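REVIEWER CHECKLIST
Item 1: Sequence provided? yes
Item 2: Single chain? yes
Item 3: Sequence as submitted:
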Amino acid sequence: MRKCNSLMAAARSLALLPLLWLAGCSLSPQANNDNQVELAPGVCITLPSAAEYGGSLTASQLINIRWQQDGKMQSRTLPVQLQITEQKLALAGFSSWGSRILSLTYENGQITTAVLPGLGDTLPKPEQVALNLMLTLWPISAWDKSLAGTGWQLQQQGLSRQLLTPQGQVRIQIDYSAADKLAGPITFRDKPLGLEITITTLSRGADHEPSQPQ
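Item 4: Structure as written out by the authors:
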């Protein structure tokens, strides 16, 4: 049986993300033919397709990551460029001086990532980056097939979205500032890991926005 990528290991590696700002090497592309990710130990799902977003989008964003380390709150900010089309999802992260330090493309069931050499083990797995983004932005209906048979549920009420375990416990809490998800800051919390991510959209353009508000 093929082993999917670990959510816990990927999230813990975020603490080493600041190393990206210290390096000046070129990106090294790597393809991964496995579009499965781990929600919990032994629970693997297949990511929805880019087309299931239901529209197309380009956006400039700031991602602020906060986590506890040695009893102290740590915080880092990463500027990103996001593109979603019917064919693919593309994400690029930049240093504070404007150099591209991370990129990810999800297309035809394959994820291709490029990171600075030597830092592959310090970064979250690309499948996990895509998972968090898609849990936040893709319509609830896009997850029906992926979560079917797992007992896990993604639900939304008002401006809050939750990923629930089969026991009904909240694993991930996502809070929006407005019905238009990108109109204000989005807060993503992984409660068991004590991880909080705030996504702020600075500018955006859309050829066709999703027709469903959720």
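Item 5: Key structural point noted by reviewer: The longest helix spans residues 126-137.
Item 6: Recommendation: ____
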